[in-house]
Known about the structure:
By secondary structure, the protein is an alpha+beta fold. Helices cover about 35% and strands about 20% of the residues.
Amino acid sequence: xxxxxxxxxxxxxxxxxxxxxxxxxxxxxxxxxxxxxxxxxxxxxxxxxxxxxxxxxxxxxxxxxxxxxxxxxxxxxxxxxxxxxxxxxxxxxxxxxxxxxxxxxxxxxxxxxxxxxxxxxxxxxxxxxxxxxxxxxxxxxxxxxxxxxxxxxxxxxxxxxxxxxxxxxxxxxxxxxxxxxxxxxxxxxxxxxxxxxxxxxxxxxxxxxxxxxxxxxxxxxxxxxxxxxxxxxxxxxxxxxxxxxxxxxxxxxxxxxxxxxxxxxxxxxxxxxxxxxxxxxxxxxxxxxxxxxxxxxxxxxxxxxxxxxxxxxxxxxxxxxxxxxxxxxxxxxxxxxxxxxxxxxxxxxxxxxxxxxxxxxxxxxxxxxxxxxxxxxxxxxxxxxxxxxxxxxxxxxxxxxxxxxxxxxxxxxxxxxxxxxxxxxxxxxxxxxxxxxxxxxxxxxxxxxxxxxxxxxxxxxxxxxxxxxxxxxxxxxxxxxxxxxxxxxxxxxxxxxxxxxxxxxxxxxxxxxxxxxxxxxxxxxxxxxxxxxxxxxxxxxxxxxxxxxxxxxxxxxxxxxxxxxxxxxxxxxxxxxxxxxxxxxxxxxxxxxxxxxxxxxxxxxxxxxxxxxxxxxxxxxxxxxxxxxxxxxxxxxxxxxxxxxxxxxxxxxxxxxxxxxxxxxxxxxxxxxxxxxxxxxxxxxxxxxxxxxxxxxxxxxxxxxxxxxxxxxxxxxxxxxxxxxxxxxxxxxxxxxxxxxxxxxxxxxxxxxxxxxxxxxxxxxxxxxxxxxxxxxxxxxxxxxxxxxxxx
Length: 792
């Protein structure tokens, strides 16, 4: 009884220390396992939409160690468990039977010949970076394996083993080994291939496909036989598996999208696995097309190309070629490492369709409204067309299709620079780093820089926005998708509706194609494409972007270092590549007109303005919400003599002899250039001599026009390369080119001109008035101001 009480007292005194000791032991046991078992650097890998490896970048320690996957393929898991640890699913991390057998073998041999390692213990050994094989290290592995099993499922332990086991050379992990040895994902391996990889980690330094191949095959075949004996493989499966040869040699890792891989990695530095929207088959085909064109372009000094292919429905990026020269050829191309898709480049003319769509939406133009194409000056800025000629006046859609610069600048000036700049920001142009005024009107001609990525998005939105009955989400701009888990919807409402988008794309179909493609309309099977090219100042960038209802293709050509090349234009360098990329894509229906967003209006056939009673009219589709209200300013009734050769009026001709005709009359500045391209244009007859002095205000369309300086201009005196002041050239036009004009500056007679009406003058700073008079007494005055430059 006394002994019992003594033992009870001892227990009472010791129970707290024992409890603390037990708690400490449990805490030590639980915390013995690091929170992060493996901290080895990982390779960066990107996959296609179907799970195909597009590319990988080796880990920082020069190992092909792919990021772990959540699940191990069934075939490999079965082979690994059969080969390494048959009782894996029943033991708690340590296999007692294997331990007793190993002790017996080691004692009888006098050395360590068996470690009795379970897969859980092997994971611990891998995590501890293969410490020396001692009994103390083995006990530590057992201890940690027991702990591992408490916090990890069997599937998770298999996944860790598969991710970090060595597979020969610098290949670590099942997924890397599958691609390195077989060129495909681990879940696509056969039984023979899975068994070969299952036996590799057992001695990767001694046996692998490039060394001791016969030993490796024997080990694989024995494992296949064991799987058959255990009922996993049928006799037929075994027979077929035994016939499979070993891979000849390790394969290079795919490198189908190195620039995309690097861009994604730079955007998310802590992420190593990217599941993209890329179509691997299309990516390969696109690379082949780009490289074929790139080889030809390099002969002309154009070294770099980039391309994107977009699905207009989902906004998935289906192909991403960041630069040419990455197809595996030995030739090193200057600048090939630059991801041009993400590099801002001068836009050239590729913003013009966006302005056209915005102006249609805002009611600023109709598709065929005439836009002046004459010498133009805005605060010293004088745009020129690419061919350095003028056409007088051009329908807006034709000006877009022919990429005329002067009409585009005039349209931007009319629309408003700030307004256009804000819309471009809404469309996703992310590289506009100056203010609107900082770019000025050159914004429409390449004064700003944009990335191929942003421009592809803007054009894809144009195509996606041209559909009838847009859903609520589609009424907003969408962002391009590169990752499968991304959402393309943004919270930015579109600046244009379906009608404006469709009318813009309809105009872009008229863009002339290069080479043999210029005859595309002669073939019923030809693909209808709305597209636009762009060429930057100095011939440094060649762009081509095109749309069908289903796809958008965007191409850039040039030199990564910005070097200009004489043959570097959008039409010559980029357009043929874009058209060939479209040939890779399935045929698709053209855009269906969005009739619910369209209405018809009557316009004058000659000038595209709303019809009046003096013009021949036709119907035209325009955006329903557009409020274009300008009646034709160029059609009016004129009064002629009975012969129709002279203008007359009631004060110089009997009323019953006056003949009234409807006449299309352009201002003199436009008419001079317009009639060179339109021989059918009829010049307005002049007033008969006896009617001329009495015409007064009855002559709203005088024969004189002053092209430069513009009304109210404030001009700086131009200087030469030495900083010395030079002459200012004034230019006038007359409906009758052979007329003599008399020039006056203020009260001083300057001289006369005939046919070519230009005066080159030195002018002092201050306010001035230039006056021009023709032989018939018609006159034109214009006031302007000359500003002195600072320091002059």
